[in-house]
Amino acid sequence: MKFSASLKQFNEDALAEADRVYRASNIELFNSVIRDTPVDTGRARGNWQTTIGTHAQSSSLRLDRSGAEAQTEVIKNVGGLDNVNYLINNLPYIQPLEYGHSKQAPAGMVRRNVLRIQSIIRRLIK
Description:
Structural class: mainly alpha
Shape: elongated
Organism: Microbulbifer epialgicus
Protein name: Bacteriophage HK97-gp10, tail-component
């Protein structure tokens, strides 16, 4: 019985750690995208929406120059291992911003941070 209990505890601990890394990597990735979004009025930063299971279908009217509100939403809405987390921006001009329309983010917001995901995960595992 003792071996079985130890094995069960190991399984629970491993799943809890994987869940922690999954959540933390999503939060770091999503918040980095928000921080890297160019700011004029704050509409582009404010329009990042975090959802679970299905992506947001509409644009937000939120103006968020600092990105603090969008980042708070990330922390509140990111789910664990049994969830698919989405960070969506439905503004019609977000794709031009991603591909260098703004001198503030010539390398984009999403592309440059997705390139960092492996290093983010490695760091969180340690």
